[in-house]
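Let us walk through a complete example step by step. Step one is to write down the protein sequence. Step two is to encode the small molecule, 6-O-phosphono-alpha-D-glucopyranose, as a SMILES string so that its atoms and bonds are unambiguous. Step three, shown after the inputs, is the structure prediction itself.
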Amino acid sequence: MSIQETDAKVILTHPDNQNTSVTILKYGATVYSWKMDGEEQLWLSTGALLDGSKPVRGGIPLVFPVFGKDETDPQLSKLPQHGLARNSTWEFLGQTKANPPTIQFGLNKSIANPEMTKLWPEEFNLILTIELGAEFLKTAIEVENPSSFSFLKFNWLFHTYLKIADIEDTMVSNLAGMKVHDKVLKETFIDKHPVIQFQGEHDVVYEKVDDDRVVQVVRHGKPVHTVKRENLQDVVVWNPWIEKSKGMGDFQPKSGYKEMVCVEPGHVSDFIDLAPGKVWKAAQILSKDALKYQAIQ
Ligand SMILES: O=P(O)(O)OC[C@H]1O[C@H](O)[C@H](O)[C@@H](O)[C@@H]1O
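Step three: the predicted structure of the complex.
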């Protein structure tokens, strides 16, 4: 059987390689482990709670309908940081394809966390599709606006925690020349650094990055992770470093910041305004595809 389902989670195993698998917690439809030929690709805090009492610290939490803490929209600003998708238990919809094995999860207002739908009363239908390739993991989202009269205003983001060996000799490439919003400096500017290196807390939104710019996490000249995007215009790169990690109770061990970097494809620098009856689609594809040199502006 390539699918194992329990009350809390679903494990999908690749039919051609028992050591390639993905594990998804129904709470948040959070991918919290992805092993490629036995090697874990995602970072998960050893203090992460997997009992549905809080969002998972690690893996791929889903951010919807708002990224961060909104302070402008009268409805969205009532929601907690990063919205309600990561704090709601999704429905497992089953398998849609045998090879590469593909499964789906769904969330809508009637089953989402009631504490949150009280705060943000919009109707929505989400379908998350997870496709486990022999050498990639694709997570795709469809957001449907079921209303016949009102627009649905939202952000989407895959908050992907990538596992790395050592942040100090890891670089993130192909984001040079982008307009950025630096959440630590609270400034917006053009980032001219040819690559991103880490010497402290890094919390930057790279805005309106063409989908054909493939973001890569590189160590010693080799691609450790390759992140492709479909219809996701922004990329957030985050490492909390020492002080910020100390302030997060579920971030363990405290030295864990050395072994993770978040590369988060999303649509967060402005809101999507989805017309009644319409569907918006986007995806991220994680792999270790060969290094691809791209023009630097
Ligand atoms: O602690 P959380 O709510 O999970 O947020 C974790 C992080 O998410 C994103 O990367 C944001 O850019 C950061 O500002 C935030 O600290």
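Step four is interpretation. The chain has one domain: 3-287.
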